[in-house]
Amino acid sequence: MALSSQPRQIERIADKAKLSQKSLDPNIILLHAGTNDLNMSPPIDPEHAPDRLGALIDQLILDSPDAAILVAQIIHAANAKTEALIQIYDVDIARVVVRRAKAGCKVFLVDMRSITAADLVDGLHPTDAGYQKMADLWFKAIQEVSHKGWIKAPITSNPRRLYPAPRTSLPPVSLLLAMAASLVLVRAAAVPRP
Question: pTM to 2 decimals?
């Protein structure tokens, strides 16, 4: 496939992460990356998207070695060509994550494939209900890695970084969330039990 002249979104996420990751010291990183690259016309380098995602994950591991990194298989798309690429990419995402997990890295696969085309507002991005489903899946994954002991309290000299934590048996968290082409930074005092 021909390469698009559009910017590679996975690399844009990597650039944004580099700018903020070290100063934020995240202890949880949520990553949902590749949708926009696969949806471009033509798609942006789909054959190497798993390698590019792997490089991004490796960068996250290097810059935040104590962080739990949760990597999502990307949600479905209404466009048949994009969906076909997503099906292949999601299988590759699992391989990328498992390879790093087997090497002892705190990298965890989050299956977002239950978000279907019916949950999309424009054929690519979720409706409010679709985002709620995604949030529920992220939350379940955070609970799973917390039970594995992967979430450590953030260490920081910035007293404004964490809010006072409510009483809970789960540790405080700060999140570095990368979804689609944007990097969203979220700080949470604690992961409450359901």
Answer: 0.77
